[in-house]
Amino acid sequence: MADMRRRSPEPPAGPPLIQHKPGLANEMLQELAPLLAEEGIDVNGIDVPDLKTLQAAMNRAVERSNMTRFTPVGPAREQVMTTLRLVVEAVTADDTALAAAILESVPSESSDGTMATVAGCIGVALGLLDDWLAGTDTNVPKDLGHRVKLPSGHWLGERAATDILALARKGRAYRSLDTLLVRQGGKQVLYGSALALAAAIAPWSWARRSAPSSWPTTGCGMRSWSAAGLSGSSHPEPAGSSGSWGPPGPLSRPASSP
Fold first, then answer.
1. What is the 3-state secondary structure (H, E, C) of 100-131?
2. Which residues have a Cβ under 8 Å from the Cβ of 165 and sit 6 or more positions away?
3. Residue 39 belongs to what domain range?
4. Do both 29 and 76 map to the same domain?
5. Contact call for residues 126 and 172 (beta carbons, < 8 A)
6. pTM to 2 decimals?
7. What is the per-residue pLDDT across 17-42, written as a single tens digit (0 to 9) for each?
8. The last residue of a domain, from among 182, 199, 216
9. Do residue 118 and residue 158 come from a single domain?
10. Residue 100 in domain
11. What is the CA radius of gyration of the chain?
């Protein structure tokens, strides 16, 4: 049974696994066909002046395709937000087997584009962390980025989470997607982004628990769960019995708080 907790430190990520899959190039070309058509290229009869022109068009099409995959909208985004909320609640409640089970159930693709996917969960989590930890969101505690730390113990995705938090403090986690995926691997980045999100919410929750009554009380001080997109009926609190989470010290109130 999968579990986000590990008994020993996570080993370094190995080199990227290269596999030869017959037909993969043509499959990818067909997926990019609508985007390449906008570039004036018919994948069933490619006619371009030179390879440089084709490569430039391919690069733009791949970039737009990745943007769509990692930036879900509409029902897909709602599903992603629900998934992330459930994972964060499970981690902060120290039910790490449940958190892993939720992440393991996320599919790599959505046939109709309305379901949460691995790419969607990663992209949304990194985007939220950039906003929160880099100080661009005025609704979060000013020094949240400096207070966030991973919970004690060993975790699946902890190496990726460490990199993600460092990048998010500079507002660069989402922009570093390609590097993270190559360096850490997709599964580790999925688990690491969820772990980093839970780590960011933990001190926010403690601030709400101990802060003056003027602090916003809906959604752990997180813009509110719904405003942050992680709407739900319950609010995660760091588990007090496990020893993994603890009060991180006082946080500054958001400048915009009444």
1. HHHHHCCCCCCCCCCCCCHHHHHHHHHHHHHH
2. 129, 133, 148, 150, 196, 199, 200
3. 24-70
4. no
5. no
6. 0.73
7. 666 667 666 777 777 777 778 777 87
8. 199
9. yes
10. yes
11. 20
